[in-house]
Amino acid sequence: MSDIIRLTAAGLAEKLQTREISAVEATQAHLDRIDAVDHDVHAFLHVSNHALDAARRIDDRRTAGEELGPLAGVPLAVKDVLVTTDMPSTSGSRILEGYMSPFDATVVKRAREAGLIPIGKTNMDEFAMGSSTEHSAYGPTRNPWDLGRIPGGSGGGSAAAVAAFEAPLALGSDTGGSIRQPAHVTGTVGVKPTYGAVSRYGAIALASSLDQVGPVTRTVLDAGLLQDVIGGHDPFDSTSLTDAWPSMAEAARDGARGDVLKGLRVGVVKELSGEGFQAGVQSRFDETVALLTKQGAEVVEVRAPHFEYAVSAYYLILPAEASSNLAKFDSVRFGMRVQPDGGGTVEQVMAATRELGFGPEVKRRIILGTYALSAGYYDAYYGSAQKVRTLIQRDFDAAFAQVDVLISPSAPTTAFKFGEKLKDPMAMYLNDVATIPANLAGVPGISVPIGLAPEDGLPVGIQIMAPVREDARLYRVGAAIEALLEQQWGHTLISQAPALGGK
Predict the structure, then answer these.
(1) Contacts of 427 (CB under 8 A, 6+ apart)
(2) Which domains does the chain have, with CATH numbers?
(3) What positions carry a catalytic annotation?
(4) Is the overall model pTM greater than 0.90, yes or no?
């Protein structure tokens, strides 16, 4: 395996800046890796035909002495929910097959302006609906740690690309855990920023009050570097915060070299551990909590009584917003068009198109959401779910009045086998039990690898949550835990990922 693809994004960026490696060499190494292993992993739906040209332009600008961004020349994978002008944007759905956007998503635009090289679009559950990437219309992505298991969802493609060394950085979106849960099962780092901290403009909407774009990487520092590029106010996004954000990369550096754990008030969320969590996941989490205590952190148990209703509320709010957002894919405004035999009315064309273009999970959620919003049921279902959401936000407020950060396992289990939960939607939905509360409240969360479960040797992650707008605190604590564990292990977890077919 090429040494280039094993580098962290920060390490690769340093070698690019000193011209030890060229952007073309870095890009070619990752394209070669995709060519070598992606037929097994299927992390990518589209691979860029323009990446090497973009890399040459970066090399030319660097040779000319132009001052470039810290990540200039570093390859980037982009979740297919984010629109791009030079590659199709399908959101994992047949209804958008081949769709070319006339503009880039803001995060993609900012990445290009910073000199990153988009090398491809990653696979995902259709319209981000799923926890396993088994709901992609283009076939599942496989977990590089075990090709018979899922890589998480909906952003399994982004997480698998980073874990398989096909890209050092990736962009994902997180509506109920779609960055953090894949990070948990692939041994990567995934961050859901504060709602509004990163623009959603150009992200094909699932649930607008929940969706959040964020980084998928192999280290906390790499995630901070990427969030520094993509974050900040965007006038094209009406929900974008106007805050002046500190550098997340500097926060990560402070965490890795500082003594931030001593005296840190850490809350273990009672409702997000214990019963229903795999033994190996719980044991690795408990070991990490013990390490935090040993480092001088003040660890206390925190109650969040309304968290137990989070999944129920989420699966009313999300389908309701999804049914509204997906109404535009109707054969008239966006998407494919299916003409019934013998012609038909607009309504018949629309029905035929949506029947063929949408997969079963999307149809299930559209029907549920439409029902929840229908006359006579709005207050009983959607309205009640929003009241529960307010109670969950109050639980967070009460918890953060006592502690600096909240922690839990990032997901209840390690990566499960393909098909294991596909026929049981409720079992699939419960995979996000630990991550959903942060989306409902808009608080930032990060998943950091903490080891391998003893019963199956698969990755486990710890979720850290901070108050709204305290993303920098998240990065400091995440980097401190990452550094502590690496010091104990003598290596990074991702370095222990098995080679794919000996490659």
Answers:
(1) 421
(2) 3-271+400-496 (3.90.1300.10), 308-388 (no CATH)
(3) 79, 154, 178
(4) yes
